[in-house]
From TrEMBL:
Keyword Transmembrane helix: yes
Name this polypeptide is given: Glutamine amidotransferase
Transmembrane feature ranges: 15-33, 40-59, 666-686
Coiled-coil segments: none
Keywords attached to this entry: Membrane, Transmembrane, Transmembrane helix
PANTHER family assigned: BLL2462 PROTEIN (PTHR37947)
Keyword ATP-binding among record annotations: no
Length: 692
């Protein structure tokens, strides 16, 4: 194709000189006119011809290759556009557009498919459009067609589209949906105290006449039996729950399906709340001042979540030092208040080298035993008094002890050892790795120099001492827990004797195990997730465990074998096929884990609409056609005209081209311009001479 591009100049002199000549010529012609010379106009034509010869005008022509116009089709393949008949409508609209565009000559069709946005970002239609426009020549774009339900979740970018933007809207006019919204939910909650969650149930779209204004809501905690409540639709509401288990709690809320609603994917929501204890109350009773007393006090006072009540028996009733009672400034020991009235308010009671001296009667020890059996925690740190006739083992409290003191006190150096069972128990597992090992492979911590001989009756021995005798024993008594440490020498590790040892870590774990810290339970089944990758962790004191059964959101189950990675720690991994709540079970243990967001963004709003894309459609003179009303005819319209109407959508031809060859030809040869100039000058002379 050939096209004329107009007249171009290739001056023989620089343009400033030509402009000066033109100015001088104009001045001379004006002077001739002022003097009344009859040939002034011939003088002007001669000057023009002379300047034209110097400017060298040429005609320029181009050889052009026409370029095809481009039509862009954006296909929404996100989750919300696959609901109901939308998937079929999308496929039909795409086939129709491809067929119509193929019949228009000189048109290229490009198709972009929009997947679900990463990390629950929803439909990123505006972003995809901006990226597509940046990759194609804008002067060839004839039109953009978006086959979508209109639910775009990214921010509009105020794009300047040089062609009509049209929306082929999927969905049906009679669509309606009900969804559950979690308005607010705390990340943490105090165990045993009610916590309030804000919820709302909303109906969207063409809600049928007579639809109930109440919905049935089922909710459960950690996969337990669900509770049911009737909740109003379209109103904010609150639900109060109480958490009894420490650690992460998974709350699942689910609306019962209403007849005819578009989807049930937004009828459920998952909330994860970390259950934490309020301030822990610890009662520390020291029988008499000793080197290890400060160790316990420093440990417990260093934890800001612990409220410590510490009493030391400085002057027992059997001491006769001659000091009159009225001169002593000691506080009376409130035994009844602590061990009868308020004993159940304590999370942990510690007896540190305490002996019976008539301060606590047997009825109080019986009450302490009841406290343990009903869910309390008791730690006994024994010195020589544990083996004496005044031992608290000889009180009613001895009925819950896991071992019997033999009355023998062994004063000799020894290194505490973690037993085979202790290597599996969370209180003592990994302790040996906290200090460098000795050359003979033994633990690298320092020695202790006193141990009370115990005869194990029940419970678990996790550390041993002289000749493998029980040193640290743990036991569950009824609903409570009891720990017995047969030495008062832990302070040697704290002081760094012979290199010290992991005293702080051991006592911290011991105290937290007794207070029911979930991370220190002996038998646990937990799961963590990174994306869709789920890691299952099984901790046990047993030598082997069974397979784990995993039940997905769709009710399908799979069985996974566990592999032991450390003593008592078993692991398995799997890739979850979809988001939702997964239930895990192994033996008597159950656990749940929630994958994905509590409410996927694709299902927050599911009713098809053109409102979100309306600004872009209006600015480009495009239009909206509902697929259920019929597929549109395509027409070519001139730029600037309305590009949509009833049953049709328009494309704007761009007529783009690329120049392949450029030709120039002189308008007139130079000598012709000079002849013309001479002729006009001669004519002026003759005319003016004849007139004279």
């Amino acid at each position: 194709m050939t096209g004329w591009d107009g007249i171009v100049f290739a001056p023989r002199l620089d343009w400033p000189i030509l402009w000066a000549l033109m100015g001088f010529s104009a001045l001379m012609v004006a002077l001739a006119l002022w003097q009344g010379l009859r040939g002034w106009w011939l003088r002007g034509l001669a000057a023009v011809a002379l300047i034209a010869a110097l400017a060298n005008p040429s005609l320029q022509s181009e050889e052009r290759d026409s370029l095809t116009d481009i039509a862009l089709i954006m296909v929404d393949d996100t989750a919300s556009n696959r609901l109901g008949v939308r998937g079929e409508q999308t496929a039909a609209a795409r086939d129709h557009l491809e067929g119509e565009l193929a019949q228009i000559g000189g048109l290229e069709t490009r198709i972009i498919t929009l997947p679900d946005g990463p990390r629950n970002t929803g439909t990123e239609l505006n972003t995809a459009l901006a990226e597509a426009l940046s990759d194609l020549p804008r002067d060839r774009l004839a039109g953009v067609f978006a086959i979508t339900d209109g639910q775009a979740h990214d921010e509009a970018l105020n794009l300047s589209i040089p062609a009509p933007f049209h929306q082929l809207q999927t969905g049906e006019a009679r669509d309606w949906d009900r969804r559950l919204i979690i308005r607010n939910a705390p990340a943490f909650a105090i165990l045993g105290e009610p916590v309030t969650l804000g919820l709302r149930v909303e109906d969207q779209g063409a809600v049928p006449q007579g639809q109930s204004r109440f919905a049935t809501l089922n909710y459960s905690i950690d996969g337990e039996a669900p509770n049911t409540a009737m909740v109003p639709v379209g109103e904010d509401m609150e639900i109060t729950v109480t958490l009894d288990r420490g650690g992460m709690n998974v709350l699942q809320f689910e609306l019962e399906e209403a007849e005819g609603e578009l989807t049930t994917r937004n009828n459920s929501a998952i909330v994860q709340i970390n259950g934490v204890r309020d301030r822990l109350s610890v009662l520390l009773v020291s029988g008499e001042p000793n080197a290890g007393q400060r160790t316990w006090r420093n440990l417990l006072k260093s934890d800001p979540a612990v409220d410590l009540v510490h009493f030391t028996i400085l002057r027992p009733p059997d001491r006769h030092d001659g000091v009159p009672v009225n001169e002593l400034s000691l506080i009376a020991f409130p035994t009844r208040e602590l061990f009868v009235d308020k004993i159940d308010e304590f999370d942990l009671i510690i007896f540190d080298r305490y002996r019976r001296r008539g301060i606590l009667p047997n009825s109080y020890f019986s009450n302490i035993a009841r406290y343990v059996q009903e869910g309390g925690a008791l730690l006994v740190v024994g010195g020589p008094e544990l083996a004496s006739a005044d031992s608290i083992w000889r009180s009613p409290l001895g009925d819950v002890f896991p071992a019997r003191p033999t009355a023998r006190v062994m004063d000799e150096g020894f290194r505490p050892e973690v037993t085979e069972l202790g290597r599996r128990h969370p209180v003592t597992s990994g302790l040996e790795a906290l200090v460098p090992a000795l050359e003979d492979g033994g633990p690298g911590w320092g020695r202790w120099f006193r141990q009370i001989e115990l005869e194990a009756l029940q419970g678990q021995t996790v550390m041993s001492g002289i000749d493998e005798r029980p040193l640290l024993m743990l036991d569950r008594v009824g609903e409570g827990r009891l720990a017995l440490l047969a030495s008062d020498q832990t302070w040697l590790w704290d002081r760094g004797f012979e290199g010290g040892g992991p005293q702080l870590e051991l006592l911290r774990r011991l105290a937290h195990w007794m207070m029911g810290e979930p991370d220190l339970e002996e038998e646990t089944l937990t799961a963590t997730a990174e994306g869709q990758r789920v890691t299952i962790l099984r901790r046990t004191l047993q030598d082997a465990v069974g397979a784990v059964t995993v039940t997905g959101p769709d009710g399908e189950s799979i069985t996974l074998d566990l592999t032991e990675e450390a003593p008592g720690d078993y692991r398995a991994e799997f890739d979850a096929p979809e988001i939702g709540l997964y239930r895990l079970s192994e033996g008597d243990l159950d656990a749940v884990i929630a994958l994905g967001p509590q409410a996927p963004r694709e299902f927050e709003e599911t009713i098809a609409t053109a409102d979100k894309l309306r600004p872009t459609i209006t600015a480009s003179r495009g239009g909206v056609q509902r697929v259920e009303d019929g597929l549109p005819e395509l027409r070519l319209v001139r730029e600037g005209r309305a590009a949509s109407g009833r049953g049709w959508l328009g494309l704007t031809p761009r007529e783009a081209y690329v120049t392949t060859e450029l030709r120039t030809a002189a308008l007139l040869p130079g000598w012709v311009w000079l002849l013309l100039a001479a002729g006009f000058a001669l004519g002026a002379w003759l005319r003016e001479g004849r007139g004279g």
